[in-house]
Model the fold of this input.
Amino acid sequence: MSLPENAIEVHDLVKVYRPRSGAPVTALDGLNVNVRRGEIFGLLGRNGAGKTTLLRILTTLMPPTSGSVTVLGRDIEREGLEIRRNMCVVLQENAVELFLSVEDNLSTYARFHAIPPDQIRGRADRVTERFGLSEYRRQKVIDLSGGLKRRVQVAKVFMVEKPLVFLDEPTTGMDPINKRATLDAIREQALAGGTIFLTTHILEEAEELCDTIAIVDKGKLLALGDLPTIKSLIPSALDISITFELLTDEILADLRRLPFLTFSRKRNTIDACIRSDDLSLFQTLARLAQSQRVLHFEVRSATLEDVFLELLSGPPSPDRPDRGRIS
Ligand SMILES: Nc1ncnc2c1ncn2[C@@H]1O[C@H](COP(=O)(O)OP(=O)(O)OP(=O)(O)O)[C@@H](O)[C@H]1O
Ligand SMILES: [Mg+2]
Done:
């Protein structure tokens, strides 16, 4: 199958759920987005934003209400079978055979995807090694911890090489070491030419991994682009961290009057995000520094989390249009 430049093209996509009881829910509300071939595309948004709904439509598990979607150049409604042949998907819910061993889960998946039998063993060796599953190979999945079960589920898709991989929150429940291995494996897959479409709530992960990030809310696109584009949506935001010798209620009250974009306190440390053109913080700090001991003061450029919180701080509305790269 010859592959088009865009692995995924979504035009005016709408999905309305009509539950038997209760009002209809518009989960996707006129979404437009393209995913380029060979990129790692990260879909972010708070709970209920419509991420899984989009993933289910793209993976042909569910039809849209309206709009057009092509995946690998094929129409999702007319050519679902051909699309399914060329993709792998890891959904949010656990989909592993609990009563099979880790090894049997991997080999069953490989056989299902028509991997030649003489290649399965070698692939299983590589995948179990890469995902730190070697010592659990012969254990039934039902006996594994939650994080390990998730690991098996993600590891499965690396038994086959498909041009397109969908991962719904792939690293949820994993410990930091395994998370790292999973991110490395995802990156390797992308370097080999595959397109990866993932959803995540872990913003550092998206920041580290994704070539393009889309932020959705209430089924609408709020922002789309690479990390610098997304970050530029909050002009010149800065992350600051200040540690006081003793953070009194008085200082806290003083600081809380400032127009922070985000603000959190842990013991004597304040972590916050400000606009760099806002001098009031620096004036307040200079004043505090004269009377109070500031032990540590650090300024960094804003993180994706700051942008995310800022973008989602108000509801999307007609006067708050889509931002970033609009495809
Ligand atoms: N089968 C369904 N029937 C009715 N409403 C649904 C159904 N599935 C999802 N929804 C609603 O559609 C909206 C989008 O849900 P979706 O699962 O796509 O969100 P999400 O971004 O994946 O959230 P999360 O981060 O919690 O996984 C929500 O309001 C949700 O309640
Ligand atoms: Mg979801």
The mean pLDDT is 86. The pocket of adenosine-5'-triphosphate (ligand 1) is lined by residues 17, 19, 25, 27, 45, 47-53, 92 (CB under 6 Å). The chain has two domains: 6-229, 237-301.
